[in-house]
Amino acid sequence: xxxxxxxxxxxxxxxxxxxxxxxxxxxxxxxxxxxxxxxxxxxxxxxxxxxxxxxxxxxxxxxxxxxxxxxxxxxxxxxxxxxxxxxxxxxxxxxxxxxxxxxxxxxxxxxxxxxxxxxxxxxxxxxxxxxxxxxxxxxxxxxxxxxxxxxxxxxxxxxxxxxxxxxxxxxxxxxxxxxxxxxxxxxxxxxxxxxxxxxxxxxxxxxxxxxxxxxxxxxxxxxxxxxxxxxxxxxxxxxxxxxxxxxxxxxxxxxxxxxxxxxxxxxxxxxxxxxxxxxxxxxxxxxxxxxxxxxxxxxxxxxxxxxxxxxxxxxxxxxxxxxxxxxxxxxxxxxxxxxxxxxxxxxxxxxxxxxxxxxxxxxxxxxxxxxxxxxxxxxxxxxxxxxxxxxxxxxxxxxxxxxxxxxxxxxxxxxxxxxxxxxxxxxxxxxxxxxxxxxxxxxxxxxxxxxxxxxxxxxxxxxxxxxxxxxxxxxxxxxxxxxxxxxxxxxxxxxxxxxxxxxxxxxxxxxxxxxxxxxxxxxxxxxxxxxxxxxxxxxxxxxxxxxxxxxxxxxxxxxxxxxxxxxxxxxxxxxxxxxxxxxxxxxxxxxxxxxxxxxxxxxxxxxxxxxxxxxxxxxxxxxxxxxxxxxxxxx
Length: 635
Description:
Elements: H1 31-39, H2 47-69, H3 74-85, E1 92-98, E2 113-121, H4 126-133, E3 168-170, H5 176-183, E4 187-188, H6 192-202, E5 214-220, E6 225-232, H7 242-279, E7 290-297, E8 308-314, E9 320-327, H8 332-350, H9 355-369, E10 375-383, E11 388-394, E12 400-402, E13 408-410, E14 428-432, E15 438-442, H10 454-472, H11 480-488, E16 500-507, E17 515-520, H12 526-540, H13 547-564, E18 569-575, E19 578-585, H14 605-612, E20 615-621, E21 624-632
Antiparallel strand pairs: 1-2, 1-6, 2-3, 4-5, 5-6, 7-16, 8-9, 9-10, 10-11, 11-14, 12-13, 12-15, 15-16, 17-18, 18-19, 19-21, 20-21
C-alpha cells in the first residue's frame, strides 16, 4: 500500500481523512479515480509506479480536455476547466479573462484589463480550513469573508464557491504580470517573476501557499493572450512538480482555444440574429379594419436564419397585403435570397399590382438571381370596406380561415408553381372575409416533418384551430396572440425540421355606415362641394368638432388633385378610431412637401396637412395616385 506523504507541519494529510470530504464533483469519467495518482506525486517512484502515474496523468489530461471541449459558449468552457481540475488537479482555481474579450482578428481595446470570470475550490469543512490555514475555525467572521476581498487574508473560505481575490486587474506594460503573460508558459508561484506577478493579479493583501503550490498559466488564444488561470494546492497535498506545469499548459491551451472559438461562434450567432431581425418586419403595421400577429421560429438554435418570411404591407384604399413565403433551405444564402424577394414584393405592392402580377414579377426576379433560386409564396390582399380577400398562390400550403362560429376552413386556392420555375401563369381567386374571421398564413415547417406529410399536418392544424376556438365560445374569437402560441403547440418534441413563419389576420372590416364615397368633377367648384359633403358626413357620425380641420385639409388636397386631373376625382371618408380621408386622381405625379416663399400664393397645402393630420401619405396607383390623411376622433 502506498504511503501518503505528510505536510511539513506534521498534520494528518487530507487524503487520509474520510473520503466524503475530498470527494470530487461530477466531472469527466474516471476523474475521481485519477485524483490520488495526479495529486500525490513523489520523487523516487519505481519504474512501474512511474509508468502508472504517467498513464494516470495522460488519462486525466484526456478527460479534462474532452470536458473543456464540450462547452459551446464562454461560460460552459470556463466551467468545464474548473470542474475538470478541482479537486483532481488542484484544490482551487481562479480564471481571469480579458475585458472586453477580442473576437477573431479585431484589435483589443486598451488598457489591458483582466476580470475575474470564475473561481472554484474544493468545498471543505471548518476542520479542513483550520488544517489548511492554521487558523481556528471558531474565528469570528470566518464564514463572512466571501466577497470581502479587502479584509480577507485567507486563500479559502467555507460555505461559498468564491475565492477572495481582486475582481479587476490592469496589466501594466513592462510589469511583472505582463512579462509572465508575454512568456505564455505556465510558471510556479515561487518563481521570481510569479512572486511579483501574483500580487498584481490577485491583490497585494492575499496570502498564498508557499513552495510549488501555485501555478500561474497564461491563456493564449490563436493570436494573443486572453487571460490567465491560477491553480492552487493547499499544504496537505503534494506540491506541483514540473510534469504538472505541462498539464497546466495543456489545460490552458485547450481552454484558450475553446474560448476563441466560442467568441467567434457568438459573433456569428449575433450576425445571424441581426440578419434575421433586419430581414423580417420589426413591427407589424396597424392597418384599418384588421389586426395582425406573427411568429417566426428558426429550424434550430445552431441555424438561426432561414428562408421563411412574412410581411404586411398597407395599400391604398385602406387595404393591406399579407405575404408569407419560403425560400428553399435555412442558411445565410437562403436568408439573403429571402431578403431580396421580400424587398421586391414590397416594391411591387407599392405599385398596387394585382396579386397574380406580383407573383409573376417575383418569378422573373428569381430567374434573374439564378436557376436554383426557388421559393413558395402566398400573396393576399384584404379590403376592409368590401370585406373580401384576393389570393394568389405560388406552390404554398393553403391558408386556413377560422370563422367566428368556430369552424376552420382550408381555403381552396389554385396551387400554382413555385417562384423560380418560370413560364407559369398564376391565378387569383376572390373570397369573402367576414368580420370576426381569422386568416392563418404559414410555411410548411408548421405542418410537414419527417413524422407526417403536409396534408396530415394541415388537417391537424385545422382541428387544433377548431379546438382552440371552442374554448372561447361561438360568439367570441380567441385572442390573436394566444391563438398563435397555441398553433405552435401543434408541434411535438423534435417534430420541427424547417423554419416556421406564421401570420394571423383578424378581419374586423369597416361597416358600410362608416364609409362615405363620392366622385367629383375636376372643376373649380370641386373643393367647395367636397367641403360640404365632408361636413354632412361628419355631422351624421356625430363628429362635428372635427369639421373645421377636415374641411380645411380636404379643400387643400382636392384643390391640388383638380389642378392636374383630367377625369373625375374620388373622395372617400372612413370612420374608425380615426377619420381617414382619401382623394384619388388620374395624375401619376406624387405631391412633395416644400417650403413656400413669402411671395408665393400657393404651395402651403401639404404644409398644413403635415401640421394638422396625425398621419398622411401618397401612393401611386396603376392609373394615378391616392393622397390620404388621418385625423384622430378623440374617442
